[in-house]
Amino acid sequence: MEKLNKTILFVEDESITAMMQAKSLANEGFTVIGANTGEKAIEVVRSGGKIDVILMDIELGGGIDGTQAAKEILKDYDIPVLFLSSHTEKDIVDKIEKNTSYGYVVKNTGIAVLTASIKMALKLHQAYKELKEKDALVRESEERFRRITNAMVDAVTETDTSGIYRYVSPSNKKIFGYELEEMLGKSCFDFFHPDDVDPSMDVFIESINARSSCKVEFRFRHADGHYLWVECNGNIILNDKGVVDGIVFNSRNITERKQAEEALRKWAYIFEHAEWGVIVESTDGKILELMNPAFAKMHGCTVEELTGKSVLDVFAPEALAGLSEQFRIINESGHHVFESSHIRKDGSVFPVQIDSTAIKDDSGKVLYRATNVQDITDRLSAEQAGKKAENARKESEEKYGRLFDNMLNGFILHEIISDENGAPVDYKYLEINPAGEKVLGLKREDIIGKTFSQLNPDAENLLINQYAQVASFGTHFESEFFDEKNNKYFRISTFSPKRGQFATIFEDISEQKQAAEKSKKYTEQLEELNATKEKFMSLLIKYS
Predict the structure, then answer these.
(1) Which strands make up the sheet holding 165-168, listed edge to edge?
(2) Which residues contact residue 447 at a Cβ distance below 8 angstroms, ignoring those fewer than 6 apart?
(3) Which residue stretches of 407-509 are H helix?
(4) Per mean pLDDT, which range of 55-69, 74-88, 128-142 is the poorest?
(5) CA angle, corner 490, sides to 416 and 441, nearest 5?
(6) What is the rounded distance in angstroms from the CA atom of residue 33 to the CA atom of residue 52?
(7) What is the C-alpha to C-alpha distance for residues 2 and 393, in angstroms, rounded to an integer?
(8) Angle at CA of residue 470, ends 468 and 475, nearest 5°
């Protein structure tokens, strides 16, 4: 007979029955440990000995019964319990089923039945144990999957073959802002940018038909309404029959990468099409590693001709002496702008402005230099022309300034002041020369910025409309007035040097007036003398 090497805890309060059953079980290859009370059975189990199955009599006399003892043991120990009972009433069966799923054996049914029941209980227990282990592995796997999906930066989703979401990982909320319930049961294409739906759908359909993985980039609408660029990798799911049942997607936010790519495309376009030269020098700053077409063109070369050449090859010989100091400043300060001279392929020299930046790593080591180079020939020519023009302007200003200050005629510049309807109401003094100060009898600082009304509060501005006509239409008129205070006559010429302004030039004509008065007086006296002479001659003739 094959030994089972299993240990039975046999709980029976009738000592003769216990002895006989124990002997029979031993003959079947079992090791039997006895206990005559429920309390003793609990104590034996807790002592830590190896027990493979418990054969428990329900009725144990005094103390707790078998079902109570089994309940207490099963709280802490996973041991199959097979009950013994001489009763088959329904309430007894119900009481047993509440404690164990291994059943019971009616007493005195024979050792063969009892042995078979024990073996069955052991097999059931082993099956339950394996099932629990599998369940534990599944739960552990599910928990591991849950932890992984919760911790993933990427979003994991599962759809059916029509694109309806069946699973959405928690990371989707972190990336896209939706509650999981807002995505489950909806089509993934509902969240795509309208322009990306058809191209993406074509890729998914092709993946399903080919039963292969897929990769696609598209824009996905965030919960707040803006779109994110997403890179999505999909793998098909097969059911038990080998039919495609859905797709698992792993999606990541590539918006920053897309923005960086777009920025690189823009910079590449600028690099290729910039009108100024751009170069990248080697780590040691000696070799031209990269350049744009404009740099090569300004030197009369192709990019291929200059690539790999020494940086010094593009500098004019007379500019080489100070270059090491310029390079030192760039490397130490990180950025430096200076002017120098470059030489073309044909030997001609031209001036350049060099704007160089040293790109360094975290330790401060220079990795390379990025440099903008501009041909400043036109700028220098313009600056020289500008200096000449400026010098001429200053000379002209000085000349006319001296003329303005020393001219004998008074000069006053005014600006018309209009009301909200555009009607002229006053004028303001903008400039006056020393001769003009004498005419008005006021100092320059007392009138500049002041209006006629402020300086002459009681006087009526009789000529304001005529002055406004001059300022608006550029007309010209002359007038004369007598300055009683200074006893002088002035001729006033009024004209407009600029729209909205008028100027007056005061010419002292006192001497002319005095000469005219004297001439008039002499003429009158002569006429009177001639009249007297004629009268005298008439009398002389009459009485001769």
Answers:
(1) 165-168, 155-159, 244-253, 227-238, 214-221
(2) 429, 432, 440, 455
(3) 434-440, 444-447, 452-455, 464-473
(4) 128-142
(5) 70
(6) 11
(7) 127
(8) 155
Contact 504, 414 (CB under 8 A): yes
d(CA 56, CA 67): 8
pTM of the model: 0.45
Sign of the C-alpha dihedral, residues 15, 20, 25, 29? positive
d(CA 474, CA 468) in angstroms, rounded, equals 9
How many whole angstroms separate alpha carbon 68 and alpha carbon 317? Answer: 108
Alpha-carbon distance of 39 to 339, in angstroms, equals 103
Q: Are 376 and 352 in contact (CB under 8 A)?
A: yes
Q: Is the pLDDT of residue 304 over 50?
A: yes
Residue with more model confidence, 86 or 87: 86
* ∠ CA 451-457-459, rounded to 5°: 100
Tokens 């192709």 label which residue? 302
- Alpha-carbon distance of 280 to 287, in angstroms, equals 9
Q: Strand, helix or coil at 207? A: helix
Quote the tokens at residue 533: 């002479």
Q: How confident is the model at residue 1 (pLDDT cuts 50, 70, 90)?
A: very low
| Residue from 455, 394, 405 nearest 429 by CA | 455
The C-alpha atoms of residue 366 and residue 346 are separated, in whole angstroms, by 33
Predicted confidence (pLDDT) per residue in 450-508, tens digit: 999 998 888 888 888 999 999 999 888 888 877 777 788 888 899 999 999 999 988 88
- The one-character DSSP state at 96 is H
What mean pLDDT value characterizes the chain?
86
- 452 residue type, one letter: F
Do residues 470 and 479 make contact, with C-beta atoms less than 8 angstroms apart? no
Distance CA 495, CA 501 (A): 9
Q: How many C-beta atoms lie closer than 10 Å to residue 26's C-beta?
A: 12
The backbone torsions φ and ψ at residue 340, rounded to the nearest 5 degrees and listed phi first, read -155, -165
Residues 6+ positions from 466 with CB-CB distance below 8 Å: 477, 494
Under 8 Å between Cβ of 80 and 102: yes
Beta-strand relationship, 155-159 and 165-168: antiparallel
Measured distance CA(481)–CA(506) in Å, rounded: 10
